[in-house]
């Protein structure tokens, strides 16, 4: 009898302990935290990641979204946004205006103040028959010689130059004569006929004095015909061509 009571007491004790243990497991120590919705960013990745319950799906989705973000960034757009490609019209090279190069042409022909082409006048001696306003006597020349050369009246030449007939044959080289611009020489202007050849008599002769021997010829004409200068020193026996 005692053994039965002891067994029953032990059974009830075990049941009580088990009941307390079960009730302790089912009781919540504290209230569950309130659920808060977590915002998923839509700027970087439009599509949320796959559930962590499937790691491989999460990795695959992450790779797709990363590639899309890189493509958008390379195109200058916003990651996650659709990149719109707009076709631009490429101009036809044939339709573009062509610039014609301008070539500056330099006119080498000199012009005068009016724009007309200037005529080059070579530097030459005074032509035969023309009359300069003044003339400077050279060695071997005299007023009558100059009157024949420029076809002027000798008396008018002396008067215009302030000289007398007595002074005509004694004027030194360097004397300046005033040449009248009217009148003419009385008689023949030539003292010797030419063209011809002249032989220099002495070293005292000059091209100017030889021109005076012929009367109506320019000294520069004799110099040009012989390829010498009008002031060249002559030698006795030298042959000169008189044009």
Instruction: Please state the average pLDDT score.
Output: 72
- Low-confidence residue ranges: 43-52, 77-88, 101-126
The CA-CA distance between the termini, in Å, is 190 Å
Total beta strand runs? 4
User: Major sheet: order of its strands?
Assistant: 1-2
Helix share of residues?
25-40%
As for the CATH topology of the domain at 128-189, it is Membrane-bound Lytic Murein Transglycosylase D, Chain A
**CATH-level-4 superfamily name of the domain at 128-189:** LysM domain
Describe the main β-sheet briefly: 2 strands, antiparallel
Order of helices and strands: HHEHHEEHHE
Task: Specify the number of helices.
Answer: 6
Question: Rough shape?
Answer: rod-shaped
Rg over CA atoms, rounded to whole Å, is: 66 Å
Question: CATH first level of the domain at 128-189: which class?
Answer: Alpha Beta
- If classified by CATH, what would the architecture of the domain at 128-189 be? Roll
Structural class: mainly alpha
Proportion of residues in extended strands: 5-15%
